[in-house]
């Protein structure tokens, strides 16, 4: 079964012989892939809704992995206890939702050895919150699937320095490593700011707002980063 580049890239960052919680598991493809790879000793596949949990159970049963992967219905990290899990994966949600989940169960999150986060948006805000709350950026990755570039952020407990806003938006480790998808990633970010600025440009009130100036500054800073990596 092909699990897709996004899930395969997330799986790459799960260490060998660890236990994993997949929050918002949907069909439990990630835990199944990890079990097939022989990387995990146990996985808790969690989702808040019954539908995804039923789909996850069906997937797990079809692969005969009931003894390794346990489906748990519940809200965020409440499906696990502190110290039960080595690696917490939260993927396919908005960055703001991820922050809410981590805030709500901070002690459970802190008990894990690693967080692997794949936000659908607001990655900058997610990085900022994690750094401000005692998490260190271990690495970052990008995966392209279906014409979409996904960001994967790997965090562990520790002190991290502060970064300029544009660097947090682009991804500090992605910039350091010069990821092969970095130019396309930056172009996607620039196009988003261009669209937002264009939608505001029809209103004089919007064009003189602090929000417009912030978007313009962020776009200019990202353009400077893009020029630097293309030198």
Description:
- This protein is of the alpha/beta class and 231 residues long.
- It has two domains: 5-162, Vaccinia Virus protein VP39 (Rossmann fold, 3-Layer(aba) Sandwich), CATH 3.40.50; 183-229.
- Helices cover 48% and strands 23% of the residues.
- It has a seven-stranded mixed sheet with strand order 3-2-1-4-5-7-6, with helices on both faces.
- The longest helix is centred in the last third of the chain and has 20 residues, at 210-229.
- It is elongated and about 60 Å long.
- 37% of the residues are buried.
- The mean pLDDT is 95.
Layout of helices and strands, plus pairs?
Blueprint: H1 5-12, E1 18-23, H2 29-37, E2 40-47, H3 50-62, E3 69-73, E4 87-93, H4 95-104, H5 106-110, E5 114-119, H6 123-132, E6 135-145, E7 148-157, H7 165-170, H8 172-177, H9 182-200, H10 204-207, H11 210-229
Parallel strand pairs: 1-2, 1-4, 2-3, 4-5
Antiparallel strand pairs: 5-7, 6-7
CATH-defined fold name of the largest domain: Rossmann fold
What spatial form do the alpha-carbon principal axes imply? elongated
Helicity level: 40-55%
Count of the domains: 2
Structural class of the secondary elements? alpha/beta
CATH superfamily of the largest domain: Vaccinia Virus protein VP39
Count, helices = 11
- Cα-based radius of gyration, to the nearest Å: 19 Å
SSE string, helices as H and strands as E: HEHEHEEHHEHEEHHHHH
Number of strands: 7
CATH class descriptor of the largest domain = Alpha Beta
Major sheet size, sense and barrel closure: 7 strands, mixed
Task: Please state the second-level CATH architecture of the largest domain.
Answer: 3-Layer(aba) Sandwich
């Amino acid at each position: 079964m092909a699990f897709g580049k996004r899930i395969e890239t997330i799986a790459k960052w799960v260490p060998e012989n660890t236990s994993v919680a997949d929050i918002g598991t949907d069909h439990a493809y990630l835990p199944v892939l990890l079990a097939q790879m022989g990387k995990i000793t146990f996985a808790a596949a969690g989702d808040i809704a019954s539908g995804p949990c039923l789909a996850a159970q069906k997937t797990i049963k079809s692969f005969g992995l009931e003894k390794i992967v346990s489906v748990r219905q519940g809200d965020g990290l409440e499906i696990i206890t502190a110290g039960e899990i080595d690696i917490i994966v939260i993927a396919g949600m908005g960055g703001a939702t991820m922050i809410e989940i981590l805030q709500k169960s901070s002690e459970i999150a802190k008990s894990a050895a690693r967080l692997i986060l794949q936000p659908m948006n607001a990655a900058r805000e997610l990085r900022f919150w994690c750094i401000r709350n005692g998490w260190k950026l271990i690495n970052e990755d990008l995966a392209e699937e279906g014409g979409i570039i996904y960001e994967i952020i790997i965090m562990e407990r520790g002190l991290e320095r502060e970064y300029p806003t544009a660097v947090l938006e682009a991804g500090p480790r992605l910039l350091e490593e010069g990821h092969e998808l970095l130019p396309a990633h930056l172009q996607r970010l620039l196009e988003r700011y261009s669209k937002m600025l264009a939608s505001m440009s029809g209103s004089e009130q919007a064009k003189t707002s602090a929000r417009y100036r912030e978007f313009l500054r962020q776009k200019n800073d990202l353009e400077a980063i893009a020029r630097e990596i293309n030198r």
